[in-house]
Amino acid sequence: MHLRDELAVVADLIADGSRVLDLGCGDGELLGHLQRRHGCTGTGVDVDPGAVRRAIRSGVSVIELDVDEQLGEFGDDSYDVVVLSKVLQATRRPAEVLAQMSRIAPRCIVAVPNFGLWSHRWRLLRGRMPMSRQMPYDWHDTPNIHNATLVDLEEFLAGLGFAVESRVLLDEAGRVAGYPPALANLLSGAAVYLLARTS
């Protein structure tokens, strides 16, 4: 099975044999890949009963929990890495979710769409809400409630005490892109961050 681009980036940031907690795991695609190809163990978390059933059918261990409310169920340092891919912007309390992730594991991987993408800015100038492959929802049915640019996000992460160990930029189609730092916020459709807690 071939992982979609941003999940392949996430998988490359996880050491073989790691204990992984995948928040908002959907059908368990990432965890299944990590178990089969990288000798990882772990647990998926999702609030959608249908996704949980699909993940279980594919052989992935999944718990149906609300990421905003129930991460206290996991012990301190009970995993090596926590993954939150394309979910942070849909949480009600992102700072609390990130704090819980940092408590659960020494490293966190966060993938987020970039609201600062040039085409989003252009749509706003034309009086329309942004839409793209990374943010495919219309304004009235989007699950995204906390949109951020990469600059906003990185300031937020630093304020929460995270160190960015690695940042992988993705283009509008979700492929890895080597944009210069000065243009990253303008050209990136999304980014994947490997974070370490600093205290």
Concise overview:
The chain has 199 residues and is α/β, with parallel strands linked by helices. Helix content is 30%, strand content 23%.
How would you describe what is shown here?
The protein has an eight-stranded mixed β-sheet with strand order 3-2-1-4-5-8-6-7, sandwiched between helices. It is 30% helix and 23% strand. The longest helix is centred in the middle third of the chain and has 11 residues, at 94-104. The protein is globular, with a radius of gyration of 16 Å. Helix 3 (49-57) links the parallel strand 2 and strand 3 (62-64). It has a single domain (5-197), classed as 3-Layer(aba) Sandwich (Rossmann fold), CATH 3.40.50. By secondary structure, the protein is of the alpha/beta class. The chain is built from seven helices and eight strands.
Element layout with pairings:
Elements: H1 5-12, E1 19-23, H2 29-38, E2 41-46, H3 49-57, E3 62-64, E4 81-85, H4 94-104, E5 107-113, H5 118-125, H6 150-159, E6 162-170, E7 176-177, H7 184-187, E8 190-197
Helix pairs in contact: 1-2
